[in-house]
Design a protein that fits this description.
Elements: E1 11-18, E2 25-31, E3 37-42, E4 50-52, E5 58-60, H1 63-74, H2 90-108, E6 112-114, H3 115-129, H4 131-139, H5 142-147
Parallel strand pairs: 4-6
Antiparallel strand pairs: 1-2, 2-3, 4-5
Helix pairs in contact: 1-2, 1-4, 2-3, 3-4
């Protein structure tokens, strides 16, 4: 791995452990050239995953789309003055929920997942974590409402 500070090609792992969630491996690395220390996170790749759309087409799994939906649902609602009301760190919450959803996908051992399955997984995680965000997520489309039984 290249050093992010000097670009040298050789680094060594000084320490390594599994994260609390068990979804990734944290590594402390040091550059053999400039001696600076940095951290990396290793997570399983979901490049193999195919999403079967409602129209029957297959597409590659795109985690950024789920993250965007989660972020929109978790982000602030409109305040009384038309501004945004702070609901905490929506990006951190969305990332945490995305990791949980991806763990469930990996645990299912499926290589193809339907959009309905993804909507259900997102709905389950939001419902158990942030009920207002769950309802905002469902409100984005009638298809989601139907899939989530609303």
């Amino acid at each position: 791995m290249r050093c992010p500070f000097c670009g040298h090609k050789k680094t060594e792992v000084a320490n390594s452990r599994t994260t609390k969630s068990g979804t990734s491996v944290w590594r402390r690395r040091s550059c053999l050239s400039c001696k600076k220390v940095f951290s990396t996170y290793e997570t399983p790749s979901l490049d193999f995953l195919v999403v079967k759309k409602r129209n029957g087409k297959n597409t590659r799994y795109a985690p950024h789309k789920i993250f965007a939906s989660l972020f929109d649902a978790c982000a602030a609602g409109k305040g009384q003055n038309g501004g945004m009301r702070d609901r905490g760190d929506a990006a951190a919450t969305a990332q945490m929920l995305l990791e949980r959803i991806e763990q469930k996908i990996l645990a299912s051992r499926k290589s193809v997942v339907s959009t309905k399955d993804l909507i259900r997984l997102v709905g389950e995680e939001l419902e158990s974590t942030d009920l207002p965000a769950f309802y905002r997520y469902a409100a984005f489309s009638p298809h989601k409402q139907e899939t989530l039984g609303l």
